[in-house]
Protein 1
Amino acid sequence: MKVKDIVNREIVNLTNCEQEPIHIPGSIQPNGFLIGLKEDSLLIDYCSANTLEYIGIAHTELLGKAFGVAFGEKAKKELLDYISNDRMLSSLLLKTTLLEKEFLCTVHKSNSTIIIEAEPINSKVKKANEVYDHTSQFLSYMHTTQSLQDLCSLVAKGTREITGYDRVMIYRFDDNYNGEVFAESCREDLEPFLGLHYPHTDIPPQARELYMKNLLRIITDIDYSPVPIYTIDDQKDKNLDLSLAILRSTSPIHVQYLHNMGVGATLTISLIYKQRLWGLIACHHYSPKNLTPELRLAAQLQGHFITSQIDVRQSNEEYEVSRKVNASYDKIDAFELTEGAESLAKLIKQPELIGLCNANGVSLFFEGKVYSNGVTPSDDEVKFLASYFAEYTENTNISTSKLLDLLPDFKSLCENTPGAIYHSLDVEGDNCIIWYRSETKKEVNWAGDPSKSIILDKKGLSPRNSFELWKEIVDCTSKPWLQPELDTAAAYANGLQRQINLIKITQEEQKYRKLSEMLREANAELENMNWISSHDLQEPLRKMQLISSHLLYEDEVPENVQKSLKRLNISAERMRTLLQDILKYTRLKYSEEDFERVDLSKLVGEVARELGDDSDPNTIQLDELPTVLGVPFFLKQLFSNLISNSIKYAKAYEPIRVKVKSAPKPVNYPTEKDEPYYLIKVIDNGIGFDQKYAESIFNIFTRLHLATEYSGSGVGLALCKKIMKNHRGYISAESTPGNGTEISIYFPLI
């Protein structure tokens, strides 16, 4: 049987250190040994190289053996009972005897491998009552502290007492995973780290990911020699995921980092809050130090205490803020906005408008005008911000404590008001409300220059060689907005938007009311004009026709005068026809209440009998037509106009043929989707027209031929289009010169 080690020898450099595969180092720390069993058979598939030191048998002898054969059936039964009772990674560790030596074992599963990490039982352990006393002390912290920082300070102190480490820090991350020493307890002779900041590069992404999976990490001696893990060489690139292993070997970069700090041993406990790495309990010792598994679990319990209290403590800290901003909100919410700029000017001067989110100033941009109060940018800058934020947020909202991050080219603007809460007041346009917060310069103490977190020197990669204090002055930044402040600003902005929308609706109603009055008056005037057209104008035309007709029968009228009288008579008749068509067009108005079921076969049949040629029964041919909803009088006028046009524009010396047919099944109108119509076509064999006029022929007074060639006013097809529009339908035409015309009519289904 051939065996090999699985030590990861991948070269780490400046370009790939953030992708270092720290979960598969292929080695462990030497304060225990590790074996990996196949889940189905319990055969030993992985084994650390230090088993000889702990149990007197070499790893080469263990690999390939069944666990029961190697350690006895009693140890096998204890392991199976432990696994079957689902105790893996629980607070109750597996205590067992392996080859006559007692061990405390941490057991977990990695893919299809059961990993056992065995550590010898330490006879010098704290008594159970001591551990209990320390643990119960933490419970009292919940009742004796109010702020989160006070609680963390007591937890740091208590954790140091129970573990004996030289320094215990509560390390808190910001949104970008830069860390801050939030609370600390250390030996009096040590330099305190409290308040120091560490860049996010100190704990790379893959390390943070492991902290999320494995809540406890211990290094007993920074100067340890990694123990390789061996396996049976039966497949290529074989390795073992040690993400959850306590003994997992550490990245050489991290070891160098701790060396640079002068640390000899560490214990790290993850603080998880809302599925995110909130922080760490970081314990440092300046010489080698190991903890028993019991003490590790007791220390880990402190992390649970902190994370269980984060919500409560932050709520306590935010309560006063919330109470204050809610009081301002209640007052300003009672302000009733009315129409007009005076009301907006009065609103902006209300001190509660600034107080509802503890801002230093507020601006309201509405209909091109700026209203401001407190510390705000200039009017032109407010207009710029309103336009920028509207586009950037797509008319939603945004908040920032460092406006310079969004507008790096506008430092002078961002210095005065670096904090901003923006809320749009319409779905499009620049109307908005913006709260501002003034600059708060602060001094951030970094543990070394954060820009030099990992450098390349003679010895290779060297993380954080210097931990000397490095000060950074942070400007163009405001105090962060707290969640109650953001919530209150959002609530008020929504309420203000509703008030403004109501005012707009009222204004629109008033505008439409005035327009309706004007339209009513205009319609009345048009009706009067129609009456004048039908009566006062037609009367003189009739007299002109009557007089000209009488004169035509006089014997002594010269021939040239007779011709002029005939032209006058024809012009007067054309004018009278035009006036009658205009009257029909303008009076075409009705509602759907007038609709009834109309049998088009019957209605069009009547039209055909009225317009057809008795000598040629094939002049107008009809298909079976559907029943539609409409006004019979207007539908009859529709088909009369269409069939009359087909007859009027017939070819000379060719029999007139007009077909009215229906599509066999409902169809969609070309510009509509998923709305079927009855399609009826009126087809003739007349002179046709150029298709480029297919739309314009439905416009009023449009004529394609001279009045001397074909009679008509140019109103007929416009009247047809209006009839179809009022029937919620469509009309269109297709034609080519000399090849007839096809008119398509679309009626909604009943």
Protein 2
Amino acid sequence: MKSREQEYKEIFIAEALEYYDALNRHISTLEKEPDDEQTLAEIFRLLHNLKANSKAIGYLQISDVSHKLETAFSLIRSKELNFSDEVVMVMFDGVDLLGELIHNIDNPTYGEPDPVLLRNLDIIVENLSDSTIELAKVQKYNTSKNLTLSDLIYIQIKKLDHMMNLVGELMIDRDRIISISRELNNDDLKGVSSHLYRITEELQYSVMDARLVNIGSLFNKFPRIVRDIAAAENKEVNLQLTGQDIQIDRNILQIITDSLLHLVRNAITHGLETPEERLKKGKERTGSLRLSAQSDRDNVLIRLTDDGKGIDLKQVKKTAIERQLVAPEMATGVTDNEVLSFLFEPGFSTAKQVTEYSGRGVGLDVVKNAIDSIGGRINVESEKGQGTTFTLQLPTSIAVKGALLFEVDEIFFAIPLLHTEQVVALDKDELHEVGDVLLANMNGETVTVVYLHELLNAPEGAMRLGDKTRLNGQVQNVIVVSYNNRKLGLIVDKLYRQQDIVVKPLSKPLDKIDIYGGVTLLGTGKVCLVLDVPAVTRYFISRRQG
């Protein structure tokens, strides 16, 4: 994996070379139309950005030349300097020097730039007089050079999206060919299919790698945002950023940007106390906000932690009852994690009381929906008076997902690994019938367990989800899934393997069935339905709490 410095340098060089080409075009335009204000403004913008970017990354020669050219064009804009033939030539020479400096960033044999040219730029910048331009005619900078192309190019994201879709189709056909080669037991076909597997896998990871960006491209925008929000709220906030070099799919980063901004705003506005309140509580007057990223197998974890008020679970439970999100008689048995999950319910976000004690409910349903849309998870942990942590678990890619394959009633299904907590074998005696659902104790936690066969095949009125007599055999295969701080055990007939799958949307009218998140094809050619864990979990939790 590239270092953060190397990636920033490559991005800088690619942008700088684009600026170089654009400057040459615009100066040519300006030579023909010296009064074109729009072109002048664009030249000024490009030079200003190049000056700032090169200074920030440590290329001071590029910054210095950019600054001199920027100053010269500011004089032209203000009519203090005429865009004469001599000035045009020096401007072109200056831009050529920028190109030379950019192309030779990594060239250890490249010496200092030509001092005659730099003198000409200084004459234009420092003397503010057209008469001094005559001095620039003493010796011209040699602009004859070989044409070169950058090793770096910009690619539109939609082109990479299209490539990823094609790779997905190729993966499906690859798995089918491998399955056929095994059935025919042909050595030649096995060799070809094995090579196809390696090439397809390498192509998949190459395309995915091309879509990756450092998460710092988003994180590094937050110091200014936090400063502005804190100033508006009359609060003092110390922001700590870690993990900026962690890489993630650009589309995923784009989708979660608004969600992360919302969480940060809520943490400052409603989570952190004022300096006076914090001092009364024995805390430091400056609140702490930590935003971190780390890799977790095939996922990326983003955590936002504050040391503010925390969340009052009793008040959340009271509000949930008032908003009819849980029946009063069921509320006493709700776990702390399930109490926190109410914060993400659409009905809960309208409760005025929430903003008065924590503000955590406002808009969190929108945040959760955005995370759900990319197949991610969001979790919240909080301690009253101590602070709150939001954890976003995100896939590194949208198109290709790791999944667990299983079978129910001789039909293949898949569940994304991101929502899979564990797979356990439970004895039928470990399942307890409570009302119309089954419950099991797993590591000290009571988990609702359901038989997927009943959900997928039985008519609504005939479902008996709490009836153990319908289970086949004494030992049950249970997949424990997690969504919105809640766990659910799914009893399946057979467990298979983990596998990368390409999820395709269902065709109409099947796309209206909530419990299915899409479909994929297995190597055998069989269709495999992908379960939508959020929809399945919501359905059974509502039965348990209703």
Protein 3
Amino acid sequence: MTPDSATPGTDAGGSNYHAIQARSVIELELGDCRHISKEQQSILNSALQLVSELAEKEPVESEGCLGGNGLIGDPSVTVPESPPPELLFMLLRVPSDASDIRWPDHISSKTFERMATALIKGDCRGHLFHQYCVCIYVKAISYVYQLSRVAANATVKSQLSQSRKVYIAATLRSIKEFDILTPPSLPAIQSLISGALLMQQLGEINQCWVLNSYAARQIAALGYQKVRNVSTRSDADQEIHSAVYWCYYIDKTLSALLFRSPSFPDMAISPTELIVMEASSPYGPLIRLLLDLSQIQGRLLSVQSQNTSHIHVLNDCRLLREKMEDILPRLQSSRDSAPDPIRHDWIAADFCYYAILVEIHRTRLRCSFTPLVHKECLACARRSLEAFRFLLQHPAEMPGFDDPYPTFFTWTLFLYPLTPFFVLFCHIIGSLDQRDFDLTQDITKSLSRFKGHAHLEKVLKLLTSLEQLCEPLFQAREEGASARPFERPLALSMPETNTGEALASAVDPMMEGFSAGDVHPRNSDMAHAALGPSVDWLTWQMFDSQLPSGWLNVDFGLYGLTG
């Protein structure tokens, strides 16, 4: 499987990648569905036809943010010629910021102060002026998002939203002044990364990937990635390293999402070693976790793209899974110590973590079907979507505005795959699991509140269409036509509260360690011994619908499920 063969017909805006993911999941499920009814097979085939039409659409010209964003031509938006001094002062961090909940980026306080000073003094002109403007306005947009999280006054929120529009329009104006023919430089790299972060926030994933790719090429041209020793480094080194690891993170994450070849060159050390975090920022542990996850995504993309033997793929998946096991305790402990106002950001990280695990399991299943791995894949899909639903049900706890979507989509819907949804959809067709169907319905219903963004509307249309394909099966079951006794015994629901204690219990993992499944041969051997030597696909279908009581040894800890 190669990136080119996996994504034919990707449109110019890169907006049909979710349909491509769905097609891949459904094709794998249809590989052997002899023991489900003809009606269920027909629904899966209809779903495959639906997503294939979306995945193989003819390339189109994408207007995107740079070509025709309405904010640029909106007469109600007055764009200042230069960032106002008051804005620069507001964004300055002071030593008394003991608990700064601003989302960090690649522009440190010292770097920002230097840029702000140059703008105030009028010392920068031409391309440098626009590069600094992009960096400062994107930081302002992020800050306004965070202010909206704590603002309770409707008038204040409305003004924050209006300011955000002005900053976005000003940023887009300066981005259009970029000249990729100018010699590479650190300010150019910083502004390209800032521009990519804005495109991510706006849901313009293709533009995000393109801008960040330009930054990666400039980093390679200047040799900034050739870092071998970080024990002693100057302020200039720290500024470069911040740009390097942020560019690396965006590149690996988006390349995995879009199934495109990464642009960032290989590094001699782990990019996590380059992290320089403000002492007052509580986000340090989370940034490290996301960077570690991006490295796993990069390796997984390489595994999926190479034409290697199944043995190599299985070994690589085993190693990646072990790395995920190492990350999980750190994710839990950092979440427990996070300040209450930002603890929901760690639940968004839960979605990311389990979505990546789903991709690892699916890569494993493509080479060799193992029922325990299949079960883990389903459990991870549920866990990921439970976190996603929880965030949708608590929009007030996340930074951002409801027009057109809450900001946590910058982490979830626009940076990480929705494969968990498609995995659960196929399981719903095969097992008629009511709780899984309710979970997907809750998500699509919550997503329907957010309008005004073309890409989000495409995603919602895709998810809604798949959901509607399932509805006749449940209607028939209610009428007694095709009832089945299988139902998942445990509902993994988030509590309807946002207290710190409840959040901690809500995001407890479904198991303490990922020790079950095929990564340990003794587990697989015991599975076959327990069920007998001749187990056909129908038995596995029954297994996937309900875990038999007392079947697993507690040492395996398969997501804490019991009969």
Protein 4
Amino acid sequence: MKIKIYVFGSFFLLFSLMVTACDSSQKEDVNEYFIRLHKEITSFADKKDKISHAYFTKALDSLHRRELFKYKNSGDEKYKLSSKYIEIYYYSSIDPNTFIRQLPTVYELLKLNNNRYDYITIFCNFNLAYQFEHNSPELAMQFLDSAIETERKSEKDYELPHMYHLKGRLYYNKKDYKKAMEYFDLALKTYKKDDFLYISSMHNNFGLCYEKMKRPDLAIREANIALDILNKIQEKNYAHDYFLFVVKGDLGYYQYTVKNYPAAQVLLTETLDFYKAKQEIGRDLAKCLRRLFDLYKETGNTEKMTELIDFIYTIEPQFKSIADKIEVNEIIQSYYAYTSNPKLKEFCYKLMKLHRDQDEQDKKNFADVSDVLNKHVIGSINQKHDFEIKSQKNRNKLLFVSIFALTSIFCIIFITVRNRNRKAKELAAKEKVILEKTKKILEQNIRFQDDKITNLHLNLNLKIETEKTFLEQIKKIKKSKNTNVEETVSDLFFKINNLIQIDKRNFELINESTVENKQFVHNLSEKFPALTKHELKFCVYYKLGLSSKEISVLENITEGSARVYKNRIKTKMNIGKESDLNDYLKDIKKMG
């Protein structure tokens, strides 16, 4: 029973390990599916310089419909998650500067995933950290730490170097530049050797930190390292080209801070021309315009300042972000103040309105973010509560099933053991009855054989006595001369008849054991083929324990002849003279 329980326990453990292994393998496959989907999306983003924004949005929409179709046909939850995953990129492509539209989708995806798949958990937390980078740095840090912890536990390389990068930026925004550089360095060591774009980005970040730490010489060195890495890339895509001019813009600014104005002007002008050619209207362009304006103002190049202001006038309406509009309008305001232009007052009012709009937008964003966060918190609490209830139900079900299974197993084992013991007892009882019956039969057979032998001995003794009497009568007749012949003959006839009856009874007794003795005679003749039939007959007498005198009477020979037969038999059997032939023959009977 102990072996059965051990075998069952081993099987149950093996089954649990197999289920766990299968579940782990399935999660691994789903995570890989999301990674492939991410590569599919980013492949379009990398071709942004070759395809239109509308084509990129259309491609995302096509992927979204494809994943929904898979979900409707299969009912597999991973396709529902993948469709939500694409929606996040879709909102980003519509308006990269508006993160509010993404938040509900990210939270919904996080809720749907419910920590099932590490890639989605990491992605959502990383995305939220990125979105809250400027709006709520502390909240961003919480989301980022959660993403990093999940990735470390998964022992996979999904987004870890990028998350170190973002953590460095968060410290940079907090003006903790030494801590920022620690994480930029950690990211640099974590990136793969062929991640040239990100490696150059880390060197550029070192340069930004050194500039803030009033070390422009080191900032210039790091920017040049970043440029060298980018210039060595054989096949550049749009991201490589774009970042190349980001670094050039930063390097131009470092040259400006060390008053190397010619070098600064070349680098900043090249950067501006790239943004113009690519029609990149955003924060990097606004930053480049500010740096060029400050350079022209510092060098007193009024003509270039005017050209720059005219360009800003033409593109100002294209800026979507209020913050960027404020940036470029402040450049115009600074120019009007420098040139004492009467339009200065007008732009002051315009800037005041833009700041009010920015405040209103910040308030609205804050309210929207608070609303989303509150819904998420409430949803998380409800989800957690529902999850705990569901988990408790599942635990109760599992406990019930386990108890039921264990009870069933013990019942089966108990019933099996009880039935086995009962059958063993019944079998033992039957065997006992059979043994008792067999014992009684054997005892009866032994008593019966003893009786036969006793009767045989009695009959033999009777015959011997009768023969003695017969011989004495003959002697009397021989000695007596006046004997009544008729009476003597009659008496002798009676004596002879008695001897004949005794022989018949003895023959019957001997004949009864014939079946029993046949096997003995057969075994004896095979073992000692030299024995004659007559000698085999004598062996039967000796086996029965008859003496030579008794055998002489049965065979009508002298007692000496019987002894001669006995010695002859012992010689053929190679038995010593001192050995007892009767005991030897009995042993042969047992062996037979």
